[in-house]
Amino acid sequence: MASRDATVEPITSSVSDTMLPSETGETKLPVKKIPGDYGLPFIGPIKDRLDYFYNQGRDKFFKSKIQKYQSTVIRTNMPPGPFIASNPKVIALLDGKSFPILFDVSKVEKKNLFTGTYMPSTNLTGGYRILSYLDPSEPKHTKLKQLLFFLLKSSSNRVFPEFEACYNELFKTVENELNEKGQSSFEKPNEQAAFNFLGRAYFGSNSVDTKLGIDGP
């Protein structure tokens, strides 16, 4: 996991040379500057992207940095970088002990971050920033989260039956096309099945029976 460099306050590295006892008798690690290097602008992110995807691969990429800096909390660039993400600089948390800090909203901002260091254009989501890209400090985050949990709870008895029904229909459609034409496209029927499932399971509405018809996906 990784979080934006600009929004993470100093955290304790899991590797240190000196162990200091706390007043409660528990072992406490001293606060250290997070090691790592972002390299030269543009060149550093491109090099890290090549290492991550091609030269080393994901696991070796992080393992080599752990060995280089002797720490499981490091500064690095995270793909995709230029020209897709304007700011690839992250602090990577590569052990279980440091991971919980990601849930501390006073130290980590999650605005416009979800699966990487960039947010897709809102043109893909009707001009709205969806819940995944809202920071917990934003007012709409709590409201949308409550709405989603309400939908999950109120539709719990429909999820499994509708999933089975929608995907049975999918495979029947594919089989019928194979019998009639000798070939079939899986992509469009699969998109339709997923869209039907969401509407029927969570909203109790079948999009095919509305004005949307089969144009929903």
TrEMBL record:
Swiss-Prot/TrEMBL keywords: Fatty acid metabolism, Iron, Lipid biosynthesis, Lipid metabolism, Lyase, Metal-binding
Family the UniProt entry places it in: Belongs to the cytochrome P450 family.
Source lineage: Eukaryota, Viridiplantae, Streptophyta, Embryophyta, Tracheophyta
Record's compositionally biased regions (Polar residues): 10-21
Region called Disordered, residue ranges: 1-22
Cellular component, GO, one term: chloroplast thylakoid membrane
Name this protein carries in UniProt: Allene oxide synthase
A GO molecular-function annotation: heme binding
An annotated GO BP: sterol metabolic process
